[in-house]
Amino acid sequence: MPCSGLVLLVPSSLPRVGFAYWFTTELANYVVILPVLLTLPEIPARGVMLDRLARFRPSLATIMPVVALGLSVVGSIVIGGPGAIAFPVPALLWCSLTYGLFPVTLLVLLSSLAMLGAETADLFRFVHVEDLIDSATSFRLGLTLLALGPLTVATITAVHRKLMLRLDRAVRMDGLTDILARRAYLDQSAALLSRPRPGFWSGVAVLMIDVDHFKQVNDRYGHASGDAVLVAVTDAISGQLRRNDLFGRIGGEEFAITLPDIASADAVTLAERLRHAVERLSVKVGEGQPIRVSVSIGVVHRSRPPAGGLIELLPLADAALYEAKATGRNRIVLCSSSCRAMAAAE
């Protein structure tokens, strides 16, 4: 007799056959439905969802796995027979390598429901035997094993992606301050300066920042306190920056910021705001007196992207920083002819 859904209780004089049917049916339910519930993501806010939908741009590479899965499921139903259940396997594996874990569990559920519906309608044309329950039991067991492969591959792929993201973050971000590491800052700034700038563009500025007398902080309070100072300084500076500004740790207590699309006066104003934000800090370490710190900042500005890219601007900003430190620290110096001469001499 045909089945009417995922779960169907068929009376049988043989408890063994009835138990086998119940077990395979429940197993199929758990393997197909439970992963969807376990991986169900949180529903984002309406504004976030609309923003994601607006930015969604499907491509042929993202559509083809679903199309292949749909065609393979239809093909398995049309061709029929015991072996037709395996037709969607390649497409499901393709999906598991292309999409995230939740979309794969959803596709496995939908394809399984389609095939269960076809089996219920007796479209697979199984060879009829005296005990018809054997075909239904075997079908559900096969469907369960069919779902386990793509789910396993999708799980392994999701774990691999997480590990790669963690590795990429470890390479790109500074482990202490959680801002861009030196190489990532240089690469992203170079890429930013090399992009074409259609229409009006105010220019670009690069800031070199150095924590004043940082060696004395380490010598007096210890390196752990010095690390706390660096974290506090970067947090204070990060809170003043715009969304597209690039902030990186060049090394030790030295930092750099790339400010795209900004006028010279605005760059100096922002640098002064950063200096004030750090000057107001009072870093509490241990039971002693809070540590007060300041920064010196060198600023260089170009109204057009420099031909030499970031490599051209960094020595100028560094020369301006040297001048700020040489003239008393806790101040800002905009690169002028003197710092250009100093950078050229180096």
From TrEMBL:
Entry's Gene Ontology molecular function annotations: diguanylate cyclase activity
Gene3D superfamilies in UniProt: 3.30.70.270
PROSITE patterns assigned: GGDEF
Enzyme class: transferase
SUPFAM superfamilies: Nucleotide cyclase
Reaction(s) this enzyme catalyzes, per UniProt: 2 GTP = 3',3'-c-di-GMP + 2 diphosphate
Lineage per the UniProt record: Bacteria, Pseudomonadati, Pseudomonadota, Alphaproteobacteria, Hyphomicrobiales
Keywords for this protein: Membrane, Transmembrane, Transmembrane helix
E.C. number(s) listed in UniProt: 2.7.7.65
Transmembrane intervals: 20-40, 60-85, 91-118, 139-159
Name the record gives this protein: diguanylate cyclase
Keyword Glycosyltransferase: no
Domain GGDEF stretches: 202-337
Top-level taxon: Bacteria
